[in-house]
Amino acid sequence: MGGVILGLVLAGREAKRQSVSIAFIYDLFFYMLISAILGARLYYVIFSWDLYRNNLGEITAFWHGGLAIHGAVIGGTVSALVYTRLKGFSFWQVADICAPSLILGQAIGRWGNFFNQEAFGRPTNLPWGIFIEKINRPLTYIHQTYFHPTFLYESLWDFCVFLFLLWVRRRKGIIRGDVFLAYLALYSLGRFWIEGLRTDSLMFAGFRVAQIISLSLILLASATLIQRHWGRQ
Question: Which residue from 128, 114, 122, 113 is spatially nearest to 141, judged by alpha carbons?
Answer without folding.
Answer: 122
